Amino acid sequence: NKNQSLQFLCQQTHDNVKRAAESILAGKVVGFPTETVYGLGANAFNEEAVRSIFKAKGRPNDNPLIVHVSSTHMLNKYFSQQLPWTYERLIKEFWPGPLTILIKSPTDLPGETTAHLDTVGVRMPSHPVARALIECSGVPLAAPSANSSGRPSTTSAVHVFEDVYQRTEAREVMNYILDGGRSDIGLESTVVDGLSDVGKVRVLRPGGVTIEALKKVVGDDNVLYDKTQTKGEDFKPTTPGMKYKHYSPTAKVVLIMSRGGDKEDKTERLQELIRSLGTDTKIGCMTLQDSCITKGLLKINERTDQLIPYFVGPSSQPSVVASNIFAGLHALDKEAVEYILVEGVDEAEEGLAIMNRLCKAAGNAESIVMI
Ligand code: TXA
Ligand code: MG
């Protein structure tokens, strides 16, 4: 039995966390829940253990990991340094939570963890199981999202099992997945660089903490975000992760954007799109439950019965939509659909991070259709 060596540790008992922590200290990789997405954790200061994370995911080794701490005491113990005022405020407001800050990498942190950069991304997660695991291990945990490289991130223990543990390389280095239920936020942390420009914070990856929220804390003019950094061909990546294929399920993702006329009947244009994908093709539809695109698709499906709907939430609640995006991609992939039509959202609040992930899942401009 190929799953023999894996254990799901379901109850969040001290005993289970302790066993997982012992596994971490033995140099293994542990799947664990955070409030953003699940992570694949190992001792950030153990070079060999960190190499195992890259193996388990099939991740290119020039893409650095985020290091997780359970307290400011741990931050000071392992990453002691003077922080800019912007970080002081952000930490006070958003930690524990979905915010990663780039700080100077200490000399004893292995180059494997940082991909040999002189900075390291650090965050303090709020999920109680994540905090307990780090605390019990007594060391900061390097952890990327728990998905095989290029695939959508995972927001449940079962998805970690299905997506990562099926890899031989993962089975060699992992004995435990801690199950802490579904991730509340459902999208990764916001990554910010507050070191490069004095008094400013640059958003390298939009995520769980919105730009609006960052601005409230450090001032409107002090938050920089260059949306084009994630698009175009010859941009210089500021975050190494940006240059790789990302968030792609097995099915081909087609992002559909409503070109205004919110009340308009879009059935005909949708019908045309679906015909172009094939009349016998099984198609997953990840849409807002209250949109005219949903209405159109349901109408079409009464006739063709080729669509599998998955509702991500109402347009008025972007945080709910955010929490269902990765779960939806995994669920529809499991239905073995050939395409996944995904409805785009407004780029306000969590919408910005949602669209960042969806555009990448659709291969940027390649598969975006205006309806
Ligand atoms: O919410 C999250 O951040 C999750 C959970 C598990 O904490 N983790 C996560 O890790 O999303 P990962 O490895 O999938 O994404 C980390 C991102 C990558 O895009 C990486 O390039 C960027 O952070 N990053 C890490 N260290 C960096 C650094 N020193 N400079 C620039 N970008 C960095
Ligand atoms: Mg990731």
UniProtKB/TrEMBL annotation:
Record SUPFAM superfamilies: YrdC/RibB
Catalytic activity: L-threonine + hydrogencarbonate + ATP = L-threonylcarbamoyladenylate + diphosphate + H2O
Gene3D superfamilies reported in the protein's UniProt record: DHBP synthase, Threonylcarbamoyl-AMP synthase, C-terminal domain
Its EC number(s): 2.7.7.87
A Gene Ontology cellular-component term: cytoplasm
Family: Belongs to the SUA5 family.
Keyword set, alphabetical order: ATP-binding, Cytoplasm, Nucleotide-binding, Nucleotidyltransferase, Transferase, tRNA processing
Enzyme class: transferase
Pfam families: Sua5_C, Sua5_yciO_yrdC
Organism: Wallemia hederae
The keyword rRNA-binding is assigned to this record: no
Listed InterPro entries: DHBP_synth_RibB-like_a/b_dom (IPR017945), Sua5-like_dom (IPR006070), Sua5/YwlC_C (IPR038385), Sua5_C (IPR005145), T(6)A37_SUA5 (IPR010923), TC-AMP_synthase_SUA5 (IPR050156)
Annotated localization: Cytoplasm
Limits of the YrdC-like domain: 14-209
PROSITE patterns cross-referenced by the UniProt entry: YRDC (PS51163)
An example Gene Ontology molecular-function term: tRNA binding
Origin superkingdom: Eukaryota
Name under which the protein is recorded: Threonylcarbamoyl-AMP synthase
Binding site for ATP: R59, N63, T119, S145, S153, R205, Y247
Annotated residues for binding of L-threonine: T36, H68, R123, A143, S189
Single GO biological process annotation from the record: tRNA processing
